[in-house]
């Protein structure tokens, strides 16, 4: 086994401990100005060649990364289903169909207050984002959907959202609500 100098070990340790890739100057500051950082990097690059990890330079920054031929071994594609509460689902639908929309407008449409956590869950999922402030008294924050929302639901634009007829045909609307809506329409027609 080849003996590795303390300088090379120091550079190696600095790179392993770093949270992000390091420039030559960053490494020199970490290990001391008297260390020949370039020589140490060359030695480490050779030492790690052909192993499970390698020392690489990207954009004048150095870091360790998984060997390209082994990346598939470590890749874990796990779809985590997101279970949204009814409140979150309703809120997401209101934002998608009425954006940009304020919290007060969401509450007015839903008929109940929403908790801050509901919007937080939607923003954490990456489906909703703050879209500025409404130019009204109090300047309330308004919300809109994101490209991640469109991608997740397989939409190219918001215009691809299903319409009322599509939702009825898919059986996604409550039949009681639909029946009440039809009765209200009949009643309004009779009053005319």
UniProtKB/TrEMBL annotation:
It holds the Pfam family SMC_ScpB. Keywords: Cell cycle, Cell division, Chromosome partition, Cytoplasm. GO terms for biological process: cell division; chromosome separation. NCBIfam families: SMC-Scp complex subunit ScpB. PANTHER family: SEGREGATION AND CONDENSATION PROTEIN B. This is Condensin subunit ScpB. It comes from Parasphingopyxis lamellibrachiae. The lineage of its organism: Bacteria, Pseudomonadati, Pseudomonadota, Alphaproteobacteria, Sphingomonadales.
